[in-house]
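Milestone M4 deliverable, item 7.
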Amino acid sequence: MRVYKHIIKQELNCSLNFVRSKRQSKLPIVMTPEEVKLLMSHLGKRYYLIAGLMYGSGLRVMKAVQLRVQDIDFDYKCVRVWNGKGNKHRIVTLAAELFPLLRNQIHQVDEYLKLDLQNPTFAHKYMTPINILLILNSLH
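Output delivered:
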């Protein structure tokens, strides 16, 4: 009040009409562990690993899809997430149950890479959209 009276030289009007914000009426819905197990049991092999990473490590969809082999640390049971929400880096836990699935996925991708490197159409080329179009056009 002193600032208003002596510096701004204006009386402070105490009849301010503030509107009090309301509390959120309902809480978010969270699945129980049993519901999560039921959901995971209905997923096929193709989606189980990605869903397990999202649920077990708290990864968002794009971070789970963009996960690189060098971001996985089997020894410390963690995953490094780069440029996450707020452009921040973080380390999250990795469920030991996913180890065999992750190792299998890494092995499969490695086999695909070896096949691609033997194919002159794919060998040593970055898969840019233009390269993909060129490869698709060469197949016709």
